[in-house]
Each structure stands twice: as structure tokens, then as C-alpha cells.
Input
Amino acid sequence: MLLFTHRGASCAHEDALFRILRLLASIGVFEETAPGTFANNPASSTLISGVPGSTHPMALWISDPTHLQIYADALHSVMTGQPAVEKTFGVRVFEYFPRNPELSEVFNNAMTNFSAFVVPAALEAYDFSGVDSIVDVAGGHGQVLMSILKRYPQMTGVLFDLDHVIAGAGPRILESGLDGRIRTESGDFFKAVPAGADAYVMKHIIHDWDDEKARAILRSIRAAMKPSGRVVLLESVLTPSNQPDFGKLLDLEMMLLPGGRERSEAEFRRLFASAGFELTRIVPTSSPLSVIEAKQA
Output
């Protein structure tokens, strides 16, 4: 029996790999076409790297040994309410990433990959017309910002993040052909963000933080934005009661790693009000995330 990857022969132990593929095929990932012979199906095909629709970068992050180590300390979060990562590595997760550039790259690639799925859905559901300048706060490698600018050719943008993150964005911006419309800045969003934009967008940033720190970010934005400006979040909005919700699973990730949380509509409304904003609308999308808009109260 020979087992192959999509790029050639696998170096894995034959029997061990067979047993894993047999299990995966039983739950709909891969297909056993003959005894000991497996083929890709629609689910497993998304794990191939470098093809449209690939989830490979996210799969690498979810299965990274560091990620799994943190989940092994989940009881620490349950007992203390503190992020498990602090027990696992002794520092907060966003302090750990800069010290481990290879892991940081895996994480940032995964977030860029996730953006590639959710941003098109957001752009179909939400109209950025009337926005001439936009700041992508903690925008990673710029996938969200570049997608918006491609849709709205009159718009210019600022990609704002930490130094070590911005360093990885340059090649992507050049490759996009948008370098003349994007500038990059780095800094601490708890203290200040680039000033004077019509809109400030954040994808999956507010959920990284508890209410106190999320409020500080929003207040930094309020101090920097035009009076007529808007904040646009791409976030999960939790469903009530026992309804199934991907956001409720993601909420555990937030609890164990950065110490943040997913929020309901009422919780977003209260958070915005505490930072001087009014939640103006929530726009569902075909992705797991909604577009949440707020303006100065």
C-alpha cells in the first residue's frame, strides 16, 4: 500500500497515516476509493496550499503545537478567569508572538487567510460609499484594507499595526499594486491611532480584549476620527440562548489566548456607549462575521 500527498510520496509512517486517513474519511474528510487508497474530496481539497479557497494557513495555526499546549492548560482559565497562555508561557499571547517570529508568521498568515473568506462577504453586505480615507486598525498584513480599496478605487488607506506585523505587510501591498494608495504606520492602539480618517475598520480586534481594554481602543479611535466618521467592526455577534453559533466556540479561543470575548448585540451596544459611540446598525453577512457600525454619540 502506497500513500501519497498531493505533491508526491508522503514520508509518514504508512500504517499510522492509513489509520488517520481512515478516520478522517469516516467523517467526510478524504474518501477511501479502494482498500488503502484515499482521494481528496471537496472537504480535504480545501487543505491544499496555494489554491483558491485554501484553508491551509488556518489549519497550520489551529494544529500548531504551541496552540495545542495552550489548550492543555485550559483549566487555568476555568479556575482563574485569566488566559491559559499566561500559565503555559508566562506572558500574554501578544508578547509571546514577537519573541517567536516563526509562530507569529503562522498566526498572521492564518488571519490573512480568514480575512480572504470573510471580507468579500462583508463587502457584499455593507456599503463603504462616501468614505474617502480609511484606517485599518491592527490590520495585520492588510488583507481587509486591500480588499476594500480594490472595491472602492477613490479611497486611500492606512494600515496600522505593531512594527513586527507591519514588516510582513510590505511585500503583499507591493504585490497588490495598491502601494500608491496605502501607507503604513505602527504604534500602540491603546494610546493613539492615525488621525483624520472617515472610517476606522477592525476585523476580529475588539474580541481580543476585555471590556476595559476594548473601551481604550475605541476611545483612541474617537479622539482621532472626524466628527462625521464611523467605526466598522467585523465581528461575531452571539446568538441568544441555546442556538448553535460558531462565535460561542471562538469565545473559548478568546478566553484561553488573548483574554478577550465574543459579544452579543446588547454587549456591543453597551461597550460602544461607554466609549462615546452609538451602535447604528448590525449587518449580517454570508460569513460567520457581521458588520457592526458605530458613530459618535
